[in-house]
């Protein structure tokens, strides 16, 4: 590349550095729930492996056992499912997913990112109004932008504001899509899905699009997510989730009506123009999904740990909104946040400072993400470190 081009890329990186927004990929080793960075072993408090399945060696071995004496499923589909990439594993997983969700259909995607950008841009156009929660994930924002639809946001979890927007704009659009996450990744708070479902009765042109990325596997009696816990799976038009977080795999899904599935197969560009997931990966997902309802103990333990951390932080005088295993510890000032996260890392806890623009100004925080393979004792040690920090020790 010419020097001129190199310099201009370099300049952009300098600007990011000056703004404190330069990103780099950390060099870390994984050992179950532990990670090792620069020779230091730390409990991983930044993981999405909520049930501890990704770090569970026994599960991996049990999966391998299934193939003793016969060959593994293929490691590549070599093309889109619409060409020669159709494999039985994908169909099987879709059937099982639709069955456990008690809905007509399920369609797989290569990732949650593929699902969100692909589906939203396929179901919305310039005649559509999309109203999304202020804090939805970047993949949802990208999908909305790609669609070219009219786009409004309501204040985070503020359904009075949403109602005002609906009342103002309702009559002008044939299709209105409300987009939310069920568990929000930075505050660990949750959407009130039944309240959103109720809006559909008042405004029949509404479609509900819910992203369960941080909820699938973790909530609900059978681990089907927040829509399961809040008993409204049947009422959500596009129930999306990823296999990459609690489900310890890769890929994503949408639960929907059969007609919608056929429409998506015909229109979603990230589905049509991308090589389908490796059958070996889909088989692994299926292996875990079939056991999903049996991970009750993990879910209950995680629930206990979450309550414990939430109350400990509340005792430090903070207003804790989290109702999940994602628990932010609010600090406010950027520099103090970075320093405190560093201190916790020295004490053996791998947690990260989250600063603006990822979160609103003055709300820099350390984000703790608990997993079911942590012990109560490990959490107690973390809590005592937090207590000591608070009094300046
Ligand atoms: C992680 C995440 C995604 C992306 O899912 P991937 O499978 O990792 O691409 C989408 N939505 C939300 C809310 C997420 O947190």
UniProtKB/TrEMBL annotation:
Q: What is its EC number?
A: 2.3.1.47
- Annotated SUPFAM superfamilies: PLP-dependent transferases (SSF53383)
Domain Aminotransferase class I/classII large, chain residue ranges per copy? 41-384
Q: CDD domains under this entry?
A: KBL_like
Keyword Transferase attached:
yes
Required co-factors: pyridoxal 5'-phosphate
Q: What pathway, per the record?
A: Cofactor biosynthesis; biotin biosynthesis
* GO biological process: one example: biotin biosynthetic process
Gene Ontology molecular function terms on file: 8-amino-7-oxononanoate synthase activity; pyridoxal phosphate binding
Quaternary state and interactors: Homodimer.
Its family?
Belongs to the class-II pyridoxal-phosphate-dependent aminotransferase family. BioF subfamily.
User: What is this protein identified as?
Assistant: 8-amino-7-oxononanoate synthase
């Amino acid at each position: 590349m010419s020097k001129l081009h190199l310099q201009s890329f370099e300049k952009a990186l300098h600007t990011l550095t000056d703004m404190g927004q330069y990103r780099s990929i950390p060099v870390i080793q994984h050992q179950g729930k532990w990670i090792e960075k620069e020779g230091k072993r730390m409990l991983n408090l930044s993981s999405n492996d909520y049930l501890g399945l990704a770090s569970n060696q026994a599960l991996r071995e049990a999966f391998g056992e299934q193939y003793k004496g016969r060959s593994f499923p293929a490691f590549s589909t070599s093309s889109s499912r619409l060409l020669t990439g159709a494999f039985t594993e994908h169909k099987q997983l879709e059937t099982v997913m639709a069955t456990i969700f008690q809905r007509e259909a399920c369609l797989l995607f290569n990732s949650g990112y593929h699902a969100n950008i692909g589906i939203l841009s396929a179901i919305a156009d310039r005649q559509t109004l999309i109203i999304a929660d202020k804090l939805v994930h970047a993949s949802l924002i990208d999908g909305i932008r790609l669609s070219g639809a009219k786009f409004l946001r309501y204040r985070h979890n503020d359904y009075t504001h949403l109602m005002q927007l609906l009342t103002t704009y309702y009559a002008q659009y044939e299709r209105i899509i409300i987009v939310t996450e069920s568990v929000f990744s930075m505050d660990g708070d949750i959407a009130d899905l039944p309240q959103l479902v109720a809006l559909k009765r008042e405004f029949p042109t509404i479609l509900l699009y819910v992203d369960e990325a941080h909820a699938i596997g973790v909530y609900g009696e059978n681990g089907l997510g927040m829509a399961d816990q809040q008993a409204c799976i049947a009422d959500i038009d596009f129930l999306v989730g990823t296999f990459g977080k609690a489900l310890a795999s890769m890929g994503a899904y949408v639960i929907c009506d059969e007609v919608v599935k056929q429409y998506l197969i015909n229109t979603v560009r990230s589905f049509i123009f991308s090589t389908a997931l490796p059958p070996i990966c889909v088989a692994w997902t299926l292996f875990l999904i079939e056991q999903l309802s049996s991970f009750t103990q993990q879910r209950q333990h995680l629930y206990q740990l979450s309550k414990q951390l939430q109350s400990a932080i509340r005792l430090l005088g903070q207003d804790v909104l989290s109702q999940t295993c994602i628990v932010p510890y609010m600090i406010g000032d950027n520099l103090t946040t970075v320093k405190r996260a560093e201190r916790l890392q020295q004490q053996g806890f791998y947690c990260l400072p989250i600063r603006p623009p990822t979160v609103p100004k003055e709300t820099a925080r350390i984000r703790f993400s608990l997993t079911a393979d942590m012990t109560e004792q490990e959490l107690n040690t973390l809590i005592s470190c937090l207590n000591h920090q608070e009094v300046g020790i």
